[in-house]
Write a structure and sequence with these properties.
With 308 residues, the chain is α+β, with helices and mostly antiparallel strands. Helix content is 27%, strand content 25%. The chain has helices at residues 34-39, 74-79, 99-112, 164-169, 225-242, 253-256, 273-288, 294-306, and strands at residues 6-9, 13-17, 21-26, 41-45, 49-56, 61-68, 91-95, 137-140, 144-148, 152-157, 172-175, 179-185, 193-198, 215-217. Strand 5 and strand 6 form a beta hairpin. The longest helix is centred in the C-terminal third of the chain and has 18 residues, at 225-242. The protein is globular. The relative contact order is 0.13.
Length: 308
């Protein structure tokens, strides 16, 4: 590897190359992605990197990308491919004139990576290799406030946003030892949410996140990526450290399979008309804000009315 402490600076971040890791220091300037500002810096062990690429970027730039191994970083596990390229903490964007220097560091980094076919763990590590954001953490979602102290996740509902189903269930608290994973859907997509998955399935799992007391839903200006994603990653890491049960992230196949979700395979409960009204109201707010097209609004509203 190159001399310990060598630094390659790009837009919004600088990579410092150590003997066994890459220390990424993120810029805190106003133009830097908010997720980078929230992360501050991250130490990525060489064993957490699967590959290194250098490709042309936009408008006279090149992009150095350290591809993380599946299961190595709770942040990327929770994100499950939903991050925009500009917000990917493993991508370093540099001016095109630094391409030769970037290629040098890319080659140096490739030389110390362990090929997947010779790893004892078949490419998926037994533990997270990159540290998760440290609790306590909290953020405001559309229908409630989520907080995590390292041992338990708490949801406190807002009367202005929570569905009647959540009000009936009351404020919630979940110990990480009772969870199997976290499902995160980006606030930048329709019906974004954070849902906690239980180790033991019981009862009927609501079909929609806004009806599930084990979830909070996002909305315009609520639960932004730079707050909700580190939160999800921290909970995911705590769940994985708490026991041998398989951890489920937002994008894993297990999250969608019948065996991994509470009450999966059971018939969903018939929606409460008040809940449908809440969801139509939320949909109308997104439409008014320009986040949902006329066609999407009409189609989704028809679907919701059909559930009555």
């Amino acid at each position: 590897m190159s001399r310990m402490g060598d630094v390659l600076a790009g837009f919004h971040a600088a990579w410092e190359f150590e003997s066994d890791s890459v220390l990424i220091r993120f810029e805190r300037g106003i133009r830097a992605p908010k997720l980078f500002q929230a992360l501050g810096e991250r130490c990525i062990p060489h064993e957490a990197i699967a590959a290194v690429t250098l490709t042309p970027g936009k408008r006279g730039t090149v992009v150095l990308h350290a591809v993380p191994r599946p299961g190595a970083d709770p942040l990327m596990e929770a994100a499950a491919g939903q991050l925009k390229e500009s917000g990917d903490p493993y991508r370093l964007v540099l001016p095109a004139e630094r391409e030769t220097l970037a290629e040098y560091y890319a080659d140096e980094l490739r030389a110390v990576l362990v090929p997947q076919d010779v790893r004892d763990d078949a490419g998926y590590p037994e533990r997270y290799l990159v540290s998760a954001p440290e609790p306590p953490l909290q953020f405001k979602a559309y229908d409630g406030k989520a907080s995590f102290d390292g041992e338990s996740v708490a949801f406190r509902w807002f009367w202005t946003g929570a569905s009647s189903a959540k009000w009936k269930a009351g404020d919630q608290s979940f110990r990480v030892t009772d969870l199997s994973g976290v499902e995160w859907r980006s606030p930048e997509v329709f019906e974004g949410h954070l849902r906690l998955l239980h180790r033991e399935s019981s009862g009927v799992r609501p079909a929609q996140a806004d009806q599930d007391p084990a979830s909070v839903v996002f909305g315009l200006g609520y639960g932004p990526v730079h707050e909700s994603l580190p939160f999800a990653a921290s909970v995911l890491a705590a769940v994985r450290a708490s026991g041998p049960a398989a951890v489920t992230g937002a994008g894993s196949a297990a999250a969608a399979s019948a065996g991994s979700l509470p009450g999966a395979g059971a018939r969903a409960a018939r929606p409460d008309p008040a809940d449908i009204a809440d969801r139509i109201r939320h949909l109308g707010e997104l439409h008014k804000a320009g986040l949902v097209t006329d066609k999407e609004f009409t189609t989704k509203k028809a679907e919701l009315l059909a559930e009555l």
